Amino acid sequence: MCLKIAIRNVFRNKVRTIITLLAITFGCMSLILIGGFIHDALTTYRDSIIYSRLGHIQIAKKGFFKEGTIKPFDYMIDNPEELREALDSLDHIERITPRLQFVGLLSKGETTFPFLAEGIDPAGEKSLSSYIEFEKGENLSKGDNYTIILGKGLARAIGADVGDDMIILTNTIEGGMNALDVKVKGIFYTSSKEYDDHFLRIPVRTAQYLLQTEKVQKFIVILDKTANLKKVTNRLDDFFVKNNLPLEYKTWFDLAEFYNKLVAVYERQLKVINIIIYIIVILSISNTMSMAIFERTREIGTIMALGAKRHEVLFLFILEGAVLGAIGSLLGIGGGIFFAHLISWIGIPMPPGPGISVGWIGKIAVVPAVVCISFFLCMISAVISSFYPAFKASRLNVAEALRYV
Prior knowledge:
Layout (H helix, E strand, L loop, with lengths): L1 H9 L3 H41 L2 E5 L2 H4 L12 H8 L5 E16 L2 E10 L12 E5 L9 E5 H7 L6 E7 L5 E13 L3 H6 E5 H8 L6 E6 L5 H14 L4 E5 H4 L1 H39 L1 H9 L4 H37 L1 E3 L9 E3 L5 H27 L3 H6 L2
Parallel strand pairs: 3-8, 5-7
Antiparallel strand pairs: 1-9, 1-10, 2-3, 2-6, 2-9, 4-7, 5-8, 6-7, 11-12
């Protein structure tokens, strides 16, 4: 009965009700669209990091992630093929591929430039290269030996092009010098400008020949789903202990420092936007309820004179606020999902961010958690904003309310 009365009272002043519903609807829509956009942007950037460089998990010898940048050849994995076969049997692991990093000098004619190199397995890196784009040429493939691909910035710095003959000069793991003639097969770029400016990629077998070793420094693990990361790391912990292996791992999240900072920035921005939207919703509903009290003062006095308790009047007005919040939030969910799909279909051209070399087409993800949180936050805001006007209504003096004109 109270709900029917509340619904009837909500729509008594249609103009004011429509304005309030619009405020709640647009508030809920804004939360869904902003949250969906940020979720899509972070997911896209996360996937670009995982599938172009880091993988989901990196496995190396104990101490590598702490000291490996200083002494990279002191932390080499023995019997890499046996280890790869053993790890490949674990659930949710889609692909395991070796990496061998080294530094050296790249020469073209009289021009010499320092580089960072990754020795990779071209076949194993197929899924890992899904976010690598090629400006010229093509990626390394199975069977390639004395070929390399260059980051766009590195190629520009040394003046290299596809098909050029280059010389790689580096130290072997024993400390001697070794050189190798190679040919440029492609020029690539990723989401990281810093990576493109310094790195080249070379087949891991060629890298091992150049460094005079059969070992590798780490394995890159790609999972079937990013959501299974925790399950796999738990299994890795058990696997290392059970087999007494002197290995350790880092997840992509541990290695992606810039991503973590970016997430923190976006989260703070989202909180500020949410607070602004809450204030708008609260003020809008509070204004509507306050005006309703002034218009219905005599009615309030009448129902209280007929025996209605103060807490019943309080509950009635809070229920009206909840009805407004529920209707507005449901309309906001419908509008938010519709516009999310519409905007995603059109796409939002985004420029490259700081430290990122390429832009992307932004979309609005429909995230169930964001939709539910937006609904409940708008509902809670509506109830909270109704409390003070409802409290004022319940405290009216019956005699004065009946005389009010």
